[in-house]
């Protein structure tokens, strides 16, 4: 009864049009168009519900029309005054039903297929509705004041602190951070990182003179006596080396002697030189106040001063720095250092009991406990979150609202209409039913009042 020639097309025409639209949607680009041309099982169930409500509303219209005809016939046949009341109520009910049918139908299509102005609102005004919806969202949901009020009411700082203070939540965050760190280190190419690190170190070293810094450090080390252990180590190793390589020293002395000296003289001289050298190193090793140690202290002190103030010494150090940084061995050292560091971090991130993950977990628990109890820290976190959210909203509001308008603009008008009708059409059919009932009651009331005043 509902599918009249002025309300809907025939089933054959509808199926043909849906098939063509589906083919067009399958070839059209963009996910939004596909989303609005595809009907899910839930959508189909809603459409069946709409058709049932349409049949009910139309059936009620036909019922009051039948009542009107019978009441008029009864009045004509002298059925009594009651027939006039029934006819008035039925007549007003028909008017209300038709008016609401027109209003509901005009939302989705042109009633009776006629080009009546301000009808088929959704398919013809789809883009304007999308623009209006975007503006509405931008003004009422993406304003700075609204965002701040909502975030302030949520109390993110205290909630986040209470959440992080739970051990299982801290474990989860730690695991996610470890996974993110592993992913980032895996994605990064070693050659790129090595190039960046090497270039950064080289640029930093070229931009800053290192001699004064080395001089200050050396001066402090000598003043604190920090170099004495190094001297002790060197002297001890020198003594051990002399003991093990006496023949080599004797051969070196004899090899440097003139050819005209007797061999036994060369040997005696070599033995004497070896003994004196061994005695000197032994005394220097065993006597902390040995004069040679004092001379070394004075040399290091003077050298530290020259590194800070002597122009020639500083220039020589800078040239040495450039030469060292330019060597391939140094760049290889940087590359190998990064590889070692990356492997160490990845291994620590994968190991649940590693010191890195345990420290991160402990830090998260401590931070959560502080955030849950410290109002100042909560206020600071809330301020950070509000500032970040407001920045995103105010900076990208146009892009966010354009997502709505562009998405709506990309929808197919006919299928958008059908999908919207499937979702809200059932409620709209109640408007038709209510119009019939309210119209009937209003017509009856008007008729009663008219009769009461003798109209």
TrEMBL record:
Highest taxon listed in the record's lineage: Bacteria
Pfam families: DUF445
Top-level taxonomy: Bacteria, Bacillati, Actinomycetota, Actinomycetes, Kitasatosporales
Protein name: DUF445 domain-containing protein
Sorted UniProt keywords: Membrane, Transmembrane, Transmembrane helix
Coiled-coil annotated spans: none
Region (Disordered): 26-47
Species of provenance: Streptomyces dengpaensis
Transmembrane segments: 55-76, 82-108, 430-449
Keyword Transmembrane helix found: yes
InterPro entries: DUF445
């Amino acid at each position: 009864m509902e599918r009249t020639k002025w309300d809907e097309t025939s089933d054959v025409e509808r199926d043909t049009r849906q098939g063509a639209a589906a083919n067009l949607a399958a070839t059209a680009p963009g996910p939004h168009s596909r989303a609005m041309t595809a009907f899910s099982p839930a959508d189909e169930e809603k459409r069946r519900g709409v058709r049932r409500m349409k049949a009910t509303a139309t059936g009620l219209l036909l019922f009051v029309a039948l009542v009107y005809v019978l009441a008029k016939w009864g009045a004509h046949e002298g059925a009594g005054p009651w027939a006039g009341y029934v006819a008035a109520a039925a007549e007003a009910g028909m008017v209300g039903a038709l008016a609401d049918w027109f209003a509901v139908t005009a939302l989705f299509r042109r009633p009776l297929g006629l080009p009546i102005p301000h009808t088929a609102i959704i398919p013809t005004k789809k883009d304007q509705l999308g623009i209006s919806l975007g503006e509405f969202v931008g003004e009422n949901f993406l304003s700075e004041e609204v965002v701040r009020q909502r975030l302030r009411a949520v109390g993110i700082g205290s909630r986040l602190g209470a959440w992080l203070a739970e051990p299982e939540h801290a474990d989860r965050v730690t695991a996610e951070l470890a996974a993110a760190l592993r992913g980032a280190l895996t994605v990064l190419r070693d050659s790129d990182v090595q190039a960046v690190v090497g270039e950064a170190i080289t640029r930093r070293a070229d931009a800053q003179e290192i001699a004064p810094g080395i001089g200050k450090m050396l001066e402090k080390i000598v003043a604190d006596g920090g170099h004495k252990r190094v001297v002790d180590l060197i002297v001890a190793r020198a003594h051990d080396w002399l003991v093990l390589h006496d023949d080599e020293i004797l051969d070196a002395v004899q090899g440097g002697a003139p050819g005209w000296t007797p061999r036994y003289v060369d040997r005696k001289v070599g033995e004497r030189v070896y003994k004196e050298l061994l005695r000197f190193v032994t005394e220097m090793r065993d006597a902390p106040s040995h004069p040679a140690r004092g001379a070394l202290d004075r040399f290091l002190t003077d050298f530290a001063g020259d590194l800070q103030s002597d122009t020639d010494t500083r220039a020589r150090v800078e040239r040495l720095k450039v030469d060292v940084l330019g060597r391939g061995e140094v760049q290889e050292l940087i590359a190998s250092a990064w590889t070692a560091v990356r492997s160490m971090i990845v291994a620590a991130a994968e190991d649940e009991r590693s010191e890195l993950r345990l420290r991160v977990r402990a830090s998260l628990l401590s931070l959560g406990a502080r955030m849950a109890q410290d109002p100042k820290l909560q206020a600071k976190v809330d301020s950070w979150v509000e500032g970040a959210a407001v920045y995103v909203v105010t900076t990208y509001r146009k892009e966010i609202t354009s997502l709505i308008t562009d998405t709506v603009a990309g929808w197919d008008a006919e299928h958008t209409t059908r999908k919207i009708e499937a979702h809200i059409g059932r409620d709209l059919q109640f408007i038709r039913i209510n119009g019939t009932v309210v119209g009937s009651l209003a017509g009856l009331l008007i008729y009663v009042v008219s009769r009461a005043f003798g109209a």
